[in-house]
Amino acid sequence: MFALEISDLYKTYSSGLEALKGISLTVERGDFFALLGPNGAGKSTCIGIISGLVNKTSGNVNIFGHSIDNDFIVAKSLLGSVPQEFNFNTFEPVEEIIINQAGFYGVPARRARVETEHYLKQLNLWEHRRSQARRLSGGMKRRLMIARALIHKPKLLILDEPTAGVDIELRRTMWDFLEQINEQGTTIILTTHYLEEAERMCRNIAIIDEGNIILNSSMNHLLKQLNSETFVLYLRNELDQVPCLPSFDNVVKLDQQSIEVEVPDRLSINDLIHELESLGIIVERMRNKVNRLEEMFVKMTSKTEKRGLG
Ligand code: ADP
Q1: For domain 227-293, which CATH number applies: 3.30.70.1560, 3.50.50.60, 3.20.20.70, 3.30.559.10?
Q2: pLDDT of 186-229, one tens digit each?
Q3: pTM here?
Q4: Which of 157, 183, 244, 289 is 20 to 30 A removed from 31 (C-alpha atoms)?
Q5: Are 75 and 155 contacting, i.e. CB atoms less than 8 angstroms apart?
Q6: 44 CB less than 6 Å from ligand 1?
């Protein structure tokens, strides 16, 4: 049984806009799954439908085998959802927001207090427990949403852009926390714009573009499909012009002492260094230009535009 099974899911908003055009998707139990795609692709609509915040036009969604149509209460009890918008009462104290949520899910009061303390401490919010939510920073509010989503111990946690607007330090803490609860058995699905983090954290991935799923695979498989990698090279020599490297495409001079080169899979970085040496150019340092997933993503979505899909 899958943690999530979506089949033929369509959503047409009342404006006539077709946000989802019949997507199908499965997510394994225990997975750490990324739903990626450019702005307006349909990610939030999809998550909204799974969470019961958006009405679907047609299609089926099952959470651990329970249909959101026929078995809504059980399906909902298995799900924790963190939407992009802050949707708590900002005048309520932090602690109360979570305890009230526990009440909605029938968590006994005593256990709710213990769990609230546990999650607020884990998410570094404990000292703010008596503050009104509106006093919290953006990152704190995001963590409050996560704590609230976890209070009834859902088996599937869905997060829409959980690290949006969260600074780097905090993002790392949040990822560590999510990794930990995933290891403890919670299936996690998230959307993110931080592809580098998705590459590092997620085992499986789907890319959605203009309401269609254009790719669904394991992260490893996806990254293996990339047939080139772009490097930035810092040189000892000062260059007057772009060096002529016949074996390599897309050689770009960034400034007097750095260039960017795309290295195809059939060649190695050593080939590049030797070719530069033969021109008397010495490489001092180098780094990957962008992470590979980002590169893949840009290529895939522009390919889609060219093919006129969606
Ligand atoms: P993403 O999360 O990938 O950025 P969304 O699911 O938010 O994409 O949006 C998909 C498309 O649906 C976009 O074109 C968006 O403008 C449109 N859309 C989203 N919500 C609504 C709504 N409530 N009414 C009409 N159109 C909407």
Answers
A1: 3.30.70.1560
A2: 999 999 877 777 888 899 999 999 999 988 989 888 777 777 78
A3: 0.81
A4: 289
A5: no
A6: yes
